[in-house]
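job 3f2a | input accepted
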Amino acid sequence: MAAKKPKTVFASGYIFPVAALYASMIVPWSVLALLGVIPAPPGLLSVYGHAHELLAGYGILVVAGYLLGKIRPLHLGVFLATWLLARVSFLWAPTSALAMITALAVAAFVAWFTVPRFARSAKKWRNKSLVPLLALLSLMVFLVSVPVWNTHKVLLVFIAALALLMFFMGGRTLAPAVAGHLIKQKIPMPARVQPNVEGAGIIFMFLAIALLPLAPAVAAVCLGIVGCLVLIRMWRWQLWHCADRIDLLLLAAGYAWLGIGLILLGAGLAAKPQWLTAGVHAITVGAMGVLTVTIMVRTQVVRRFRDANLFATSHMAGALMNLAALVRVGQALNVLPWASLYVAAALWSAAMWCLLWVIWQCREKQA
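job 3f2a | predicted structure (367 res):
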């Protein structure tokens, strides 16, 4: 008799609600703690800690949920338990050996379950570029938890690596979705994935990542080029034909934030330091926040109901996250007062709670 295949579950069905719940609490908590309004554990009493939990806590968890696919429940349970222990140890003892060991364990798990899969399946060089990128992201989860590497440049490298992943994955999500919608309207769309644009973006982003610690001015040019490529790519997708598809418009908004954020980040590194914070938050709150919320909603709703626009709450989640990004970037550019940080944090949290409600509506699929 043939051996039974081990039972597997969709990792996203369990990881996404954990990520949304954590993000809904940790971001406003850290913002309020930095503003001196409420107490917080040692790990949140610095801008570095705030960025650490956004990237190594929330960001990598969403990446894992999106890329792990189907996984054995035991492996999933071990991963979530390790991730939770890493969060607790960093928050309460950020410089401890336990914080570093658990961060290393999380990084090793993500690399072990994602890198070999893409190494085996990828054929084209653009797809194969995910192999070193995922290895780098896993390494960054560990490095940002080692006190000696707690530097501004290390965080920028982490942000740039996440930006490259969003450039690749966001394009691969948007292009076929928009093309399918235009085909239904009998509108030709000759530019879909745009391999030349995608390939150039990958090359320049890897150059930026490599040069950020050594030659920030050159890295800034590379980031600006990729930001422009993102916007050119979007123009060629003819998104103005998608006015009746809010789900696609929200995905496009997140991708647009990526282009804007890379341009601002490049400008901040090259000549206008006051734009650096704006670029960082355009990428983290705008691109990462909007893309992760909309993709998590899309993944859950489409799997359960086959209709990405079924729930108005899912659109509300994306809209609230866009508003959070606008407010946060506006404050960084001194367009809005510092008190608007409270508004941005509240909007971020509200977007995550809308996401959690949609996931709850889709819970039968995970039973």
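job 3f2a | The longest strand covers residues 9-10.
job 3f2a | closed
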